[in-house]
Amino acid sequence: MAVEVKMPQLGLTMEEGTISKWIKNEGDTVKVGDILLEITTDKLTSEVASEAEGTLIKIVAKEGEDVPVRGILGYIGQAGEVVGGAAPAAAPVPTAAPAPKKDGKTTVAVIGGGPGGYVAAIRAAQLGGEVTLIEKNKMGGTCLNVGCIPTKVLLHSAEALAEAKEMAELGINVEVKGVDWNKVQAKKSAVTNQLVSGVTGLMKANKIKVIEGVASFASKDTLTVTKKDGSKENLTFDKIIIAAGSVPAVPPIPGVKENANCVDSTGALSFETVPKSLLVIGGGVIGIELATAYSRFGTEVTVVEAMSKLLPMMDGELTAQLRKMMEARGIKIMTDAKVQSVEAAGDATKVNVEVSGKIEAFTAEKVLVAVGRRTDTEALNMDAVGIAHDRGRISVNDKMETNVANVYAIGDCLGKVMLAHVASAQGEIAAENALGEDVLYDGATNPSCVYTDPEFAGVGLTEEKAKEMGIDFQVGKFPLMANGKSLIMNGGVGMIKFIIGKEYKEVLGVHILGPRATDLIGECALAIGMEATVEDIFATIHAHPTVTEAVREAALAAEKRAIHIPNK
Ligand code: FAD
Ligand code: NAI
User: Which fold has domain 454-558?
Assistant: First the structure.
């Protein structure tokens, strides 16, 4: 039986390759490991080796042809064996029908003014759409008002406090008098308001009509907008982009709903005073960021996580390091621990936690419930028009199209990756497709960032995921203790870790725990997007003294040629 020679996938984002040269000819005898042909992608030229022994009985993809990943290039079998079939063409991407025009313009509605919706609206306007954005609450959505931005303001103040306390070590003598919580809150509001008014200004600058109200589907192309005064208006559009976002999930833990000391992330961003003690239910991103901030402000923090590790989507080795650092700072962390119930205890709250089969009671002034978020799609009336969804999580294809023609959905309301930059990236894709372009969303370069101290960021595959996928990979690690800038900035705490493919040396994943990790990850996302190999990272000169040098060193370490650490 003939064996197929297929187009290999040389990087996470590779979709096709070009046959640059066949080294072997039809009829040649080949052994395992013999180079059959050379292929090129946008970035790489690679050799394809034979995985079988026999005769190259047929070449089906000729020199110069583009072939999709896993497409058939040829066959190896017994001399004289007959095989058929040409290389399958790349799956045709359906071309979007030209958008219908009214007065020369496509009318586009965007439901929701978060980082998904407002970006989609701007992109649609740039492409000539007549855009209306409907927002039921505040422009900027979760991200600007009760998410990314306000958390980072609190974290920044908390970090400044920590730094001020450690200044004597740098030779600076300052007296830290404590935290003026009202000023911290005022700073948070000022930054948020400035950004919200910036987005409002962008709407005006792009001639986007903003309507305050709740949108719901009256038909497949008509939205009913219910305004604050209760009046309703029906508006018809050529294209509709749903960017309705998400809200905190409330777990069915007895006592949580009834207890006023139990708050979600929105409540925890606006405590009236810094709580003396805080129990955090959920060791995910929100739980860990707010635990970091409040512990710096002087709150006694306990984190209860149901799973065996914190931050389940992040690299396990670096997460374990982060946990140790948080514990060393006095944060109590329990994993494999389940909150059974919550009850009042005077002004405070008693939280009953099951750990190793036993119930332990913890008392805290406040309880932050951060166990994930659910989509905010109930008001949309999606079932009436048949928009496919799974318990409120809207289903879309890579063009961000729902199953209903001309209706798109993006961001948190898909219930998958709930990140502002993902919502924005999907917003641009949806708007472009709505205005007649033909583009696909690809999440391969999406970084995950956790704003801890030090920061934690990752892109691409974790070591765990690469193992699970059966990929042959090698790891390069560089401790930041050996990086001058990190040593200056935070005493050299942290590490950078590269995951690269063994055969082609392509960058599969990068994980950083250290100062400015969330900025450094941009270079690594670009590397994955460009299908870079470690050679590309080596060949790039990184400035000294910077933490970026350590990115290069970690890549070098993957090939046992790091300069500033011994290579094992
Ligand atoms: P949203 O921002 O939720 O916006 C949806 C908008 O739609 C809302 O304004 C809502 O009022 C409106 N809406 C909903 N239904 C209707 C309707 N029927 N009619 C009219 N309007 C409607 N992500 C990061 O990438 N980095 C971070 O650091 C980060 N930090 C976070 C911290 C916290 C505490 C939280 C809660 C989230 C954080 N996120 C972070 C996640 C990020 O905020 C979300 O992923 C992002 O806001 C999603 O954007 P979106 O546009 O899809 O939805
Ligand atoms: P999450 O999904 O990140 O974490 C929730 C955690 O709670 C999980 O680890 C889960 O195992 C745990 N959990 C669930 N039920 C539990 C229970 N009963 N007891 C104990 N633990 C329980 O969700 P989170 O932290 O609420 O954040 C929501 C989303 O907001 C994130 O997924 C992320 O997409 C976004 N976000 C992003 C940030 C960033 O990018 N820096 C910052 C904050 C939020």
Answer: Enolase-like; domain 1 (3.30.390)
CA atoms within 13 A on the CB side of 109: 26
**CATH superfamily of domain region 262-370:** FAD/NAD(P)-binding domain (3.50.50.60)
Q: Is the CB of 377 under 6 A from ligand 1?
A: no
Which residues line the pocket of ligand 2, CB cutoff 6 A? 251, 281-287, 289, 304-307, 312, 338-339, 370-373, 418-419, 449-451
* Cβ of residue 134 lying under 6 Å from some atom of ligand 1: yes
Instruction: In whole angstroms, give the CA distance from residue 494 to residue 516.
Output: 11
What are the domain boundaries of the chain? 3-90, 107-248+374-444, 262-370, 454-558
CATH, domain range 3-90:
2.40.50.100
What is the fold of 107-248+374-444?
FAD/NAD(P)-binding domain (3.50.50)
Residue with tokens 């042959």: 472
pLDDT of residue 534: 96
Strands 107-111 and 239-242 turn out to be parallel
**pLDDT per position as a tens digit, 216-256:** 999 999 999 999 999 999 999 999 999 999 999 999 999 99
Find tokens 């990929």 and name the residue.
Answer: 471
What would the pLDDT profile of 371-409 be if each residue is shown by its tens digit? 999 999 999 999 999 999 999 999 999 999 999 999 999
Note the pLDDT tens digit of each residue in 545-565.
999 999 999 999 999 999 999
Contact 463/314 with Cβ under 8 angstroms? no
* Residue 243 CB–ligand 1 contact under 6 Å: yes
